[in-house]
Design a protein that fits this description.
The protein is mainly beta. Helix content is 3%, strand content 45%. The chain contains three helices and 56 strands.
Length: 589
């Protein structure tokens, strides 16, 4: 029945080209995203992500986005041998043409109460809170296929084979019910499973990835054996090869049917799902897209080209080189303004990079594990943390003559090429967390969770600014616009006409975690992409320019980073690729 709509929807989507898409250009990455589910159907690989379904027809070398899903976060993809099915946070979809076009199929089930979906031997199942449903292709309807679970139980994951249905509940119990029977049996207790991809069925039995490790049963969970002892949340099996993934322990591989295991060496240690296609292993990650291995899991590489769903943090330009940090991936460099990218992570121990900057002609990174330095634009990195607390999270930095200041839960500086950090807290409270810096003349101004402070002697002594913002102390950013200083706080934007001595509120509706950026006479507030040319007194929203690129969790655009190169703004937002837009468009009145 649904097939007759395909041509209509295809034409409708092609005609829906917005003005914003003509003005905003997506660069070639960096690519990545949250990959919740992987599935192989005939000659295609399909990935369910935070930005919809992506399809690959060349075994993961490149991916293309599907634009037909109303709800973008796709948690599960399965197939019945003839059709492909997708579960989003709110709806079910079916595709009869290899994932090119999708149609909603919600009849008979409360789709917003569904947490999992599974397919076996041509049958497709989904679970509401306490019962399992089966999809009937002839009527496009979900029909109940199991009795209701005992009171208080809620289904987290499900599985099926020829004889039984199996479910894992949120309380850690595994139940089974014989098909067409009227009673569930509790088989296991204390077995917790996190996501949809926890079961795998083949001729050797049923595999379960859970908090206790990888479990195998050949008798429908009457008995079990432990195959792998580390907690995991997904499993893929082919011949003698097995892959498990976990949200913390990374990806582990066995090439001898589970007798021995090796853990993959990847920067990202958080993964949702795994798949074996032909001779290639795939793992879908948190934020970092898809990792792949062509040599039985010995070496891994990012296989997300075309997947513009990444969380890009900072963009930075220096000496003809463009740098961009991506959570789950690390740092990337482009020498042709984003046409091509290479990963430059040699020596890095984290992918969470908050700041990118130059100090004494060396590239430096502020991360959640302190400071990294590279003298060769990222070919090799050295961690420089002497004098810093363990795992010091760098929120912000300031270059001041030959000094470099960094702020987080504490305030530190180095001079010149020194590799030892010295505290610059002075008389600041020991628990001070520095969120932002600004230098004005010979004054260093810091925004903290306890208001604004300034120092005129390199941090030996700090004086607190007393102003109208004293009741709302958390200061997220400070910027200079013409002769005014502006500060964004959790209660709005404040302005100072006298270099920080006195402050008054100018925009109390901007009371969230947005930050202020200045470009000549243009002032940007990052949440909603707001633009002002009169020192923050009036604002114009530019967020509609990026509406097509938002994921399902964000109703408005949130700019993570922005720089200007010649006549273009380079912008990263919460989810997506690196975008460019002409400054004439962005700053138009």
């Amino acid at each position: 029945m649904f097939k007759v709509f395909y041509t209509f929807f295809a034409v409708l989507i092609l005609l829906n080209i917005s003005i914003s898409q003509a003005q905003v250009e997506s660069k070639n990455g960096p690519y990545g995203g949250m990959v919740y589910s992987l599935n192989k159907y005939e000659n295609s690989l399909l990935a369910g992500t935070n930005m919809g379904v992506y399809r690959s027809t060349n075994n993961g070398k490149t991916w293309e986005k599907n634009h037909y899903l109303k709800n973008k976060t796709v948690r599960t993809i399965v197939n019945d041998g003839k059709n492909i099915y997708a579960r989003t946070l709110k709806d079910f979809y079916i595709s009869a043409n290899d994932g090119v076009v999708w149609i909603e199929i919600n009849k008979g089930i409360k789709s917003d109460n569904v947490y999992t979906m599974y397919s076996f031997n041509g049958e497709v199942y989904a679970a509401e809170k306490n019962a399992v449903y089966k999809f009937d292709l002839n009527s496009d309807t979900w029909n109940i296929a199991s009795p209701v679970l005992p009171e208080g139980e809620q289904i987290q994951s499900l599985c099926a084979n020829n004889d039984f249905l199996f479910v894992i509940t949120l309380s850690g119990n595994l139940y089974r019910v014989k098909k067409n029977n009227d009673a569930w049996e509790k088989m296991l207790q204390g077995f917790y499973a996190r996501y949809d991809n926890v079961f795998y069925v083949n001729g050797n039995g049923i595999y379960l990835a859970c908090n206790k490790g990888l479990i195998r049963s050949s008798d429908n969970f009457s008995t079990t054996s432990l195959v792998y002892s580390q907690s995991c949340n997904s499993v893929a099996v082919k011949d003698n090869f097995m892959i498990t993934s976990s949200f913390g322990n990374g990806v582990s591989v066995s090439t001898d049917n589970g007798n021995t295991w090796n853990t993959a060496k990847t920067l990202n240690e958080k993964y949702y799902c795994a798949l074996i296609s032909e001779k290639t292993f795939f793992a879908g990650s948190w934020m970092g897209g898809i990792m792949a291995s062509d040599n039985n899991g010995v070496n891994w590489y990012n296989s997300s080209r075309g997947m513009d769903a990444a969380n890009l943090n900072k963009v930075f330009y220096y000496d003809g080189k463009l740098f961009c940090s991506a959570t789950g991936i690390g740092l990337l460099r482009s020498e042709n303004l984003g046409v091509d990218w290479i990963e430059i992570n040699n020596g890095l121990k984290t992918s969470i990079i908050n700041e990118i900057f130059i100090h004494n002609k060396k590239l430096m990174l502020g991360t959640n594990k302190g400071i990294y330095v590279s003298p060769n634009f990222g070919i090799v990195w050295e961690q420089v943390n002497k004098g810093l607390p363990d795992n010091f999270n760098v929120n912000t930095f300031l270059n001041y003559d030959d000094y470099l200041f960094i702020g987080g839960k504490g305030l530190y500086f180095i001079k010149g090429d020194s590799k030892e950090w010295i505290s610059a807290l002075g008389n600041l409270p020991k628990e001070t967390e520095v969120l932002c810096f600004l230098q004005v003349d010979k004054k260093i101004i810091v925004g903290t969770k306890d208001g604004i402070w300034y120092s005129t002697n390199l941090g030996k002594f700090w004086e607190k600014v007393i102003s109208d913002m004293k009741k709302y102390t958390e200061v997220r950013s400070i910027a200079k616009s013409n002769d005014f200083l502006l500060a964004s706080t959790l209660s709005g934007i404040f302005s100072s006409p006298d270099l920080g001595k006195n402050w008054r509120i100018v925009k109390n509706s901007f009371s969230d975690y947005g930050e202020l950026l200045t470009f000549d006479n243009n002032l940007i507030y990052t949440k909603g992409l707001m633009h002002s040319v009169d020192n923050g007194r009036s604002w114009t929203s530019k967020g509609e320019l990026f509406k097509e690129y938002l994921d399902e969790y964000n109703e408005i655009v949130f700019v993570n980073s922005m720089i200007i190169i010649k006549d273009f703004a380079y912008i990263t937002i919460t989810s997506g690729a690196l975008y460019t837009i002409p400054t004439a468009v962005l700053f138009a009145q």
